[in-house]
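Hello,

Our lab assistant flagged a job as stuck in the queue for most of the afternoon. It eventually completed. Since we weren't sure the result was trustworthy after the delay, we are filing this so someone can double-check. Below is the sequence as submitted and the structure that was eventually returned. Let us know if re-running is recommended.
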Amino acid sequence: MSIIMNTITTITTTKIKLWGIVQGVGFRPFVAKVADRLGMKGEVLNIGGLVEITVSDTPERIQTFIDTLVSEKPEPAEIVHIKCTPLEYREFDGFEIIRSGEGDDEAAMIPADLAICPHCFEELYDESNPRYQHPFISCMICGPRYTIIDRIPYDRDNTSMIDFPMCDFCEGEYTDLHDRRHHAQTISCHDCGPQLMWEEPGLGEELPDDAAILDRAAELLKKGGVIAFKSVGGYNLVADPFNEEAVRKLRQAKNRESKPFAVMFRSLDEIRNYCHVNEVESKLLESSARPIILLEHKASESAEINRSRFIGSFLPSFAAQYMLLDRISPLIFTSANPSDMPMIKDESEMLIYFERVSPLVDGILYNRRKIRVRADDSVTRVIDNQPQMIRRSKGYAPVPLYVESGNDSPARCILATGSQLKNSFALSKGPFSYMSQFFGDMDTIENQTIYRENVDRMAELFRIRPELVVCDMHPLYFTTGFAEEYAKTAGLPLHKVQHHHAHVASVMAENNLEGPVIGVSFDGTGYGTDGCIWGGEFMLCEGAEMKRMSHLRYVDMIGGDSSMKDGVRSALSYIAAAGGGGECDEDEISVDISDILEFGRDRLLSDANAQLILKAIETGTNTIRSSSMGRLFDAVSCLLGIKDYNDYEGQCAIMLEDAAAFALAHPSEDRASDLALSFHERIIEMIMEQCRDIREKTGASQVALTGGTFQNKILMEGILDRLRDGGFEPYYNISVSPNDGGIALGQLYVAMHLNKI
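-- returned structure --
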């Protein structure tokens, strides 16, 4: 006898929540397509900063659905966490994308701006395509995001695209489940999207279309002109790097005497004509973030390209840039603002600036799509065969970093105000740390105003209500004063973190380091716990705790802002220190530069002002004790006759590194270059000695290398090799900069590891 059993299949309803980069990357249309393919019934919506899906089916089919979402997600998407909750059974007729909700208080995530994708790029040059040569072509996986958003969820009505109602053609694609532009919030075409516009004094005619506007812009550039160009995150100034007169005008308009400009190239092949590019660099150049990458250049006819050993090189990120470079390439693209002032994003701001520099800037190429957040191009480099952030901004902000809190206290929301120079602030919500875009130096009222606005904007956008404020210890930093004011007004506790401790903590945060860490923090300046200027520090860090183990020997430096730029003053300070003799304190480190002092002493002492400066140092007039490695690099650069003055931050150190690189390639051809290389080798050996000593005392073998000095490629790669050979585990910054742009992340990390608020 046989028994036939009927299997009853259970249909259940499940709510699926997905956290991550799941808004603005085509995730809801992707979910709908997968559901259609698998025959699932339910709905999907953006809610707050996450995606919420509700489906009714068997548990097995629901699991298959989830697995498919994870394995086939759109390229720019990132799924950080998935939570499934059973609900009371609900019947659906099909699968629907429903209007987004305001959502709850969950951590929100939106994507950074995404460069034009290969599909849109192909359509841009396809004469049969309706969007052929459309300057603002985009789809679900490319186009502006953070720079145009007003609030979450990321829907067209919540962005500056609300000013451009869709035509019937675009709306048809937008509502077609199977189209690549289904629910693409930046969808537009020649008829309904933003249009290129042109402003040129005395032109006397209105240019008829995009092609004519771009032709005119290219014509001026070829004649040595300078134009303003509205890009995704703000206005750029554009010029031909091969035209010396154009570069001269650009420098005058920017008030930027000698710092090299970044150059935009039409293609990767064109970059290879001018620069050495390895596989890691090529992938980074073509990534959706489209950062500027510091590449070692080949010999060129351009004085601008030859200005430094490295050239900031990048590819276009949106169609209008490609269309201009089709007519003339490469081109300098630099932010349209005087140095140390905020990037210009609005037409009204641009016109005011244009009136001021009109003899130097010949025209403005712009459009009516409003930029909500100004964001300069990000800057990266490849060190140790790894991409490393130098300036984190467009293409990366505001994608959060995941940072373990390190304790069992409730998830806390924290505001970290960052540093005074190269500033970025940060906000945390639980383990998610949102780094702001780059703001530059906080010395001007204009930058301070924009900083304040963006703190409020970002907190509102991500629904973060800070419970704790954390800042630098320097009493005169704007960011310290802002933190004190913010905390007092909101009735919040305030915690201050020593500058170099924050540097080390940023590496610990990125690499999720547990246990004791030897922190090697080298830079130009930071306020120390003893009131001196620190910058050549060895620390032992764990959790929120820091102990200073040793430091570069204190030297009496002439104070004031000018001393940070004047290599001569730094060099004379070291000459005076050498003449003073004396033994180092127990925790001080001395680097032998006697031969370097001998090389440059007579030249410096022959200067008429030298004796006045030495007298001031001797009497302690306007001096401050400093352990700064940055100032030591400046002093050595000056003593070797390489560069006496920082026309821009870090120039003396950069040129000292260039001289060392020359010695590596051409040993014994130049005495100063050989000494420059030898100096680098001495610093590397000194780091090794200190790390070995600290390991012997504490047992720690993890080493965090950080601070602006470690942007030096020769120093960084040299010490990494030595540390690894010596049995250490070295770590460094990748997603945030080793310079002060990463300070806010370190401040967050320390605050997250405090025992209590």
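-- support follow-up --
The delay was a queue issue, not a problem with the job. The result is valid. The two ends are 73 Å apart (CA to CA). The mean pLDDT is 92.
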